[in-house]
Amino acid sequence: MKLFNIDLHVSVIADIKKIFTDFGHEVQDWSMSGHAWVFGRQRSDIDIINHTNWRSIDQEMCDLFYNRYKEELKKYDAFIVTHTPCFSMLYEKFDKPIIVVCSTRYEEPFSSDMIKWKKFNNYLVNGVDENKIKLFANNKYDKKYTETFLDREVRLIPSICEYTNSKYTGKNEKFLYSSKYNPKAELSKNTLLVDKQTELKTGYSWKELFSYSGIVHIPYNASTMSIFEQYTANMPLFFPTIEFLSRLRSKHYNRGVLSELSWNQVFQLSSCSAIGPLFGDPNNYLNNETAMKWAELSDFYDSDNMPHIQYFESFEHLGYILKNSNLQTISNQMKEHNIRRKNDVYEKWSNVLQDIVK
Fold first, then answer.
1. Which of 48, 186, 194, 284 could potentially form a cystine with 65 if both were Cys, beta carbons 3.0 to 4.6 Å apart?
2. For 337, how many CA atoms within 13 A lie in the half-sphere containing its CB?
3. CA atoms within 13 A on the CB side of 29
4. How far apart are CA 178 and CA 357, in angstroms?
5. What values do phi and psi take at 93, rounded to 5?
6. What's the rounded Cα separation, in Å, for the pair 4 and 72?
7. Could you give the C-alpha distances from 275 to 35, 142, 304, in angstroms and in order?
8. DSSP secondary-structure letter at 43?
9. Which stretch of DSSP H or E encloses residue 332?
10. Which tens digits make up the pLDDT trace of 106-152?
11. What CA–CA distances, in Å, run from 187 to 129, 179, 183, 195, 314?
């Protein structure tokens, strides 16, 4: 089977492409991402829609795209959409299956426009045959988020990110600190830690990254591809407990602590969703209690998919567990789980593709 993709993010499609090609399928992807260099590529030259105008996507743009590429793309059996789901609109007229992975809040770029967001929802639910658009999420947060606004089930299939072709060695005795929040005073108390942003320059290899003893995260989002990459590499990961993260976020939500849970916060929009809901709104970023209730669905708190993550209750506690954890044991436990995790993900995608072939 031949599948086609246009994407704004290099990693989500890279993960799916590896899995699908392992099954013997062919995936052609055109990238709009400025990070294409990570995979030794350049940004693709695409007519009609590109990295500067995609936020203006509408029916006219989709019609122009179809007329421009209908002959070139008719050879494909299905389409893949990962980031962002609005690109599924480009393929409506091709009348072929569309695999949509709802990643990092599916409604982008319609967050601030009630009419466009509702119209997009209608397209995903009623606009085409439900058997044509197949909705997935690679994390529990985006599964529930999308289902909150859509009258459709979203299937959960986590990412693996085995494309790094590299595993944890832990040869470097230091730990990396990865976050958009930088508590310098606290970090200075722990000489084991180095700041990922200053220690690793642009262009570092996954092999270099996985040579460190582990990575300490103060997360900016509920799910990131880098965490999938690190977990699959069997690298010990350290995250704050939900209680400690809540305290940090209440003070520093605009300084990198879960600062990208909502596009409304990223783009400084109203702290409520343009189309609801009235209660428990995931885009109410000013309400720490609501935000943290949603944050419980984050990948790093998902013990089914990512067990053996280490949690710290304070920065003092972090210093203690960094010095006293058996890193090799942790890594070995992750390695054992990753075998089962990969088999489960491959089985789920295999079933999806077999269903499309039928």
1. 48
2. 19
3. 28
4. 42
5. -75, -10
6. 11
7. 32, 17, 32
8. -
9. helix 327-357
10. 999 999 999 999 999 999 998 666 569 999 999 999 999 999 999 89
11. 53, 12, 6, 9, 12
The DSSP symbol for 39 reads: G
Which residue is listed with tokens 């089914």?
304
CB 148 within 8 A of CB 290: no
- How many angstroms separate the CA atoms of 12 and 348, rounded? 16
Token pair, residue 288, equals 């720490």
- Half-sphere exposure of residue 44, counting CA atoms within 13 Å on the CB side? 18
| Domain ranges for the chain | 2-157, 164-339
Whether the bond between 307 and the residue before it is cis, its omega within 30 degrees of 0, is no
Place of tokens 């054992």: 336
List the structure tokens of 328. Answer: 């090799």
Query: For residue range 168-177, what is the model confidence (pLDDT) as tens digits?
Result: 999 999 999 9
Predicted TM-score (pTM) of the model is: 0.95
Encoded tokens for 249: 């976020």
Give the distance, in angstroms, between the CA of residue 114 and the centroid of all CA atoms in the same chain. Answer: 24
The tokens for 96 are 């072929």
| One-letter amino acid of 166 | S
